[in-house]
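Section 5: illustrative case.
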């Protein structure tokens, strides 16, 4: 069996250390803050703190996905070494990057007919995408072949549950995900919409909740309702936060209260610059394995 590469993009919102430890390769998106362009390189070039402060100071953001030529060069680096590749992309429900990866795959398969290239649409984002990558790395290490890993990913990826909210609707208004009228009223009334990523990998607002304390509680209640094994849940749990660490600590405490087997095991990462460009500072997320997303 030939060696294969497990790969994702920077939008899985994992740290460089986490990716290296699990032997996951990655390719980076791009973003702009103000009039400067950056590589979304996991906070190396521009710290997450400085990025979110820039947004709070009024600097505009813009993101660009990985294009076909970038994917081609990236994949070929492995194929030319005789390695097969399984690459997992950011959800097609919020980005066109899956299509770019598929075009690159089709072009390269003509040049490398003996190599396998699998592209998985994660239908996930941020730590939910990271949650899937952690599991795939574990299964690879347990001996799954590239074919088995691809099949498992396609069968189980919708079991990665995403729940999140933001305390400032300004950035969702800018991105067109919330109307200007609804967003302005929501900010005035301290509305924190509880959202998730649905079965098509799209961001959906589920509940309008007034106040941060109430929405944090509602987020935990969704995990109680949907996670595997109820209060005995002891699988991976990831929280990502956009410059709101105190809120993240509060969420960690409440999750650990309901799920004692997770005490000291919850991973808290930053929301990266690509996802954060659209959600803004003050966004907090919770990801766990549970019931398959069906709506």
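Designed sequence:
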């Amino acid at each position: 069996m030939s060696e294969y590469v497990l790969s994702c993009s920077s939008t899985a919102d994992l740290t460089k250390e986490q990716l290296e430890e699990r032997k996951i390769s990655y390719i980076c998106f791009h973003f702009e803050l103000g009039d400067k362009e950056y590589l979304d390189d996991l906070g190396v070039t521009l710290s997450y703190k400085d990025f979110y402060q820039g947004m709070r100071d009024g600097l505009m953001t813009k993101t660009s996905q990985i294009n076909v030529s970038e994917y081609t060069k990236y994949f070929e680096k492995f194929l030319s070494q005789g390695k097969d590749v399984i690459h997992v992309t950011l959800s097609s429900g919020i980005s066109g990057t899956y299509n770019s990866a598929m075009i690159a795959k089709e072009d390269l398969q003509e040049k490398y007919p003996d190599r396998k290239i699998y592209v998985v649409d994660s239908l996930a984002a941020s730590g939910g995408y990271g949650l899937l990558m952690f599991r795939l790395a574990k299964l690879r290490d347990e001996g799954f072949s590239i074919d088995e890993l691809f099949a498992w990913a396609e069968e189980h990826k919708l079991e990665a549950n995403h729940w999140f909210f933001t305390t400032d609707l300004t950035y969702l208004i800018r991105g067109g995900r919330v109307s200007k009228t609804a967003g302005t009223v929501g900010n005035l009334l301290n509305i924190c919409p509880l959202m998730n990523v649905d079965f098509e990998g799209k961001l959906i607002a589920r509940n309008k909740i007034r106040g941060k304390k109430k929405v944090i509680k509602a987020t935990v209640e969704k995990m109680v309702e949907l996670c595997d094994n109820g209060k005995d849940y002891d699988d991976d749990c990831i929280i990502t936060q956009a410059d709101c660490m105190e809120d993240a600590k509060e969420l960690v405490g409440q999750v650990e209260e309901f799920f004692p087997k997770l005490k000291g095991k919850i991973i808290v990462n930053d929301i990266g610059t690509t996802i954060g460009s659209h959600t803004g500072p003050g966004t907090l997320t919770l990801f766990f394995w549970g019931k398959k997303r069906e709506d």
